[in-house]
Amino acid sequence: MLRLNPSSENRAHLLLTFVLFTxxxxxxxxxxxxxxxxxxxxxVMRFSLYMNWQKHQxxxxxxxxxxxxxxxxxxxxxxxxxxxLGMLNLLVMASSLKLMLLAxxxxxxxxxxxxxxxxxxxxxxNQNIAFSLFYAVLCLLLLxxxxxxxxxxxxxxxxxxxxxxxxxxxxxxxxxxxxVLPKLGPLWQMPTAKGAHTGLSDKVxxxxxxxxxxxxxxxxxxxxxxxxxxANQRYWxxxxxxxxxxxxxxxxxxxxxxxxxxxxxxxxxxPQVSGAYYEYQVxxxxxQQRWLFALDTAVSQDQHLWQNHDYTLQSRIxxxxxxxxxxxxxxxxxxxxxxxxxxxxxxxxxxxxxxxxTQAWATELWRDNxxxxxxxxxxxxxxxxxxxxxxxxxxxMPVDPIDTFLFEQQAGFCSHYASTVAYLLRLNGIPARLxxxxxxxxxxxxxxxxxxQYDAHAWVEWLSEDGWQRLDPTAWVAPMxxxxxxxxxxxxxxxxxxxxxxxxxxxxxxxxALRGWLDDMDYLWSRWILGFDRKNQQDLLKALLGDxxxxxxxxxxxxxxxxxxxxLALYHIKRWLLVKRDLPNWYYQKALALLAHSGIKRTxxxxxxxxxxxxxxxxxxxxxxxxxxxxxxxxxLCFRPLSPQQHKLQLRQMRDLxxxxxxxxxxxx
Amino acid sequence: MQPQIQQAINQIGQLIxxxxxxxxxxxxxxxxxxxLLIEDLPGMGKTTLSHALAQVFGLDFSRIxxxxxxxxxxxxxxxxxxxxxxxxxxxxxxxFSQVVLADEINRASPKTQSALLEAMEERQxxxxxxxxxxxxxxxxxxxxxxxxxxxxxxxxxxQLDRFLMRIQLGYPNWQAExxxxxxAYNDRGESLPAMIDSTLRVSLQKQIQDVHASDxxxxxxxxxxxxxxxxxxxxxxxxxxxxxALLLAARAWAVTDNRDxxxxxxxxxxxxxxxxxxxxxxxxxxxxHASLSRKLLECVDTMAA
Lengths: 669, 305
What we know:
Number of domains of chain B: 2
Shape of chain B: globular
Oligomer: heterodimer
Pfam families (chain A): DUF4129, TgpA_N, Transglut_core
Transmembrane segments (chain A): 12-28, 58-77, 83-101, 108-125, 131-151, 163-181, 553-573
Radius of gyration of chain A: 35 Å
Strand order of the largest sheet of chain A: 8-11-6-2-16-15
Radius of gyration of chain B: 20 Å
Organism (chain A): Bowmanella yangjiangensis
Mean pLDDT of chain A: 82
CATH class of the largest domain in chain B: Alpha Beta
Helix content of chain A: 55-70%
Low-confidence stretches of chain A: 189-197
Number of helices of chain B: 12
Helix content of chain B: 40-55%
Largest interface: A-B, 17 and 18 residues
Number of strands of chain A: 18
CATH topology of the largest domain in chain B: Rossmann fold
Mean pLDDT of chain B: 85
Number of domains of chain A: 3
Strand order of the largest sheet of chain B: 2-5-8-1-9
Number of helices of chain A: 23
Keywords (chain A): Membrane, Transmembrane, Transmembrane helix
CATH architecture of the largest domain in chain B: 3-Layer(aba) Sandwich
Structural class of chain A: alpha+beta
Number of strands of chain B: 11
InterPro entries (chain A): Bact_TGase-like, Papain-like_cys_pep_sf, TgpA-like_C, TgpA_N, Transglutaminase-like
Strand content of chain B: 15-25%
Distance between the termini of chain A: 28 Å
CATH superfamily of the largest domain in chain B: P-loop containing nucleotide triphosphate hydrolases
């Protein structure tokens, strides 16, 4: 069956198509490729219908066949996708099929509804300020499409004005809802998308972090409540690695199992804390991983965070989108081993064989310096005397990497030093482990700093009688790294971000200023819009209302709603009064609308009596009778002097007649 | 409809067949106390209609045939010196009649025209410092020929305004003309009975004053005149006098319908007669005359927006 082209020159359909298409493109990561192809096909088909290159739509039979095929494919892939992604793919697939079918008003409104939902869903995947603006624009375009649907002949300018007015009116309500509505937790678990992992990895081979240091991407941001730690104390712990196989460090499988077991039992670790602390909020960029970043002994009250026994924090769900969390870090606190036996045992394991020279050298060194402190001092002075250097371009060390590093290359990145020192400590029975994370951070204002991927760092923790001690061997050879960051530390070899495109521009003041400004914008967006969580909400309400009680909160909400209602009422009161005063006219217009629905339209110069005569000829007797009576009432009300009682009576009659007319017209149809 | 009015219309309808609407308009005009202008080609029954109207109202009737050499004195009358009584005596002219038919009004010189129009407005005649009241009621039925305008003095707009209505009779339709031809020869000798005598006329005029015009109707009239003023279609818009005339004519029309309130249809019925001669198209070629008021009606909604 071929149908006439409903989209020819139809700007409402064009805009709808455009929104669906761009929205799907922006969701390329969570969407399957074939779904994107389907959307593209649908958009091209609709566009050619709009341009009249093609006059006929696909037949319903073809579409049904296609829908069945798509459903089968989706069902096949859907199992792997999980609920959220599966549903998203299903929704986009269904809307592109519907777009191919689009013919009736009903189709159109269904599609519009789904698009609004999809826009909301898209914000789950893309949250930064640019995407939010982009989706806001798409939302406006959808509204424009609706406006064109209702008033196809109007100009862009008029409709944009109308849409803008409506949006401005809706804005206060939206803000109020953001402020007042309770913040619900996520209703589903975010799955990992097919996008690449960014940032740290759970396995470190010395040299890896050097790769990471070539990236200028943002890792996370921190807003301090009061005090800011000095530059050389900003060790952001992320992962603790206890398994060493001679080449790479990784989180120990046994540690992982313990963590899982505690997790399942729902027994988080509560560290003993005392002393001075920093309070801050971290907004972590999405990493698709669970680990989080915090200083020293970090404690968090957030429900979606989990405290591990190695004093790291992790999120209950992978960071699919930016995550804000509050942390209190006790920087004078000792880190006693949470599970002493486990900690001790795991952190003494040594790889079998290899690195013979190192083993011999370590034994010799221990003989001269039989206490851990002296031993560490000896290693440090050895490295300083031998002229070890810090470089972003370490040579590959395929065989016996620690031997190669210690006795041949003598140049490496933080992970080389950390790895080597931890190994040396373990060789002589001192429990030691590698900690990766970030060191440093660029202060953007007095209170907030940005930490970039090139701030990634690795250091050592060794177990003394007092607990775990931080030891950063990089500091021995490159104190600049600790104090001033990577850029200063490797200034001699000009290697900082040397591979980045436009790296030459980094020196330019304008570029720096622009980057900083964009960064600040993004920070404000993340902090105040995305990071607007329950605590922010409560703080704000507390600032507004004083102490909170449910009754007060409810009152505030009601009050706000009442204010909005009042404003709207003020805005509309003139029209309402007019309707009230001109009730006969209003009823009469309703009756006219009913008749127009049955195909009888009044030309505007027809008086009521003339029109009534016309209607009598065109509708069945019962309806005609009702309309005649209604017209008589209308004429009496509008044109005759009536007493108030008569007026009321006639109005009531008119209302009844309107109902009767509606019923009888419906019967006639 | 009022039975007497219906009868009067029927009576006149026997003379001028198929023109019920125009006859009713003319009657309304006279009931409203306004002057009537009939504009048509010769032989359409202008004179017959005027004569019949006078008869139906039971009023005395005189006819003045306007020509270019007609002087005001010929129409108004003269003061003649009576040698026996040693004083001037006023000899009233043909205008001193209750119904005056001013035939081919546009043939007279402007001086004579303005004398007539002054008399129409003042309902009195001033001559040599003396005023002479015209009889009451006083109706002028002017006729003019729209074609063959050579040697005529078309009435200026300001004077056209003095006529409450202007109607056109137009050709009768097929059946009407056939019926007319079938009629027995009418020697015009017989006169129509006076269906609306002076008592009834006075009471009807009282009713006209009492017809209720609601806000909605007044606003409709205002929308109409405002549209004529704001639209670019019209070079001459409707004056406040025109809106008063419209209301008055519509009230008279409502009374002929035996109603004591106005509905939009009343306005629509009288608007072409009341407004057409007061409007002028702004386009050079212009819309055909009858369509100006129709255009106005089409463009204005009967209901408030």
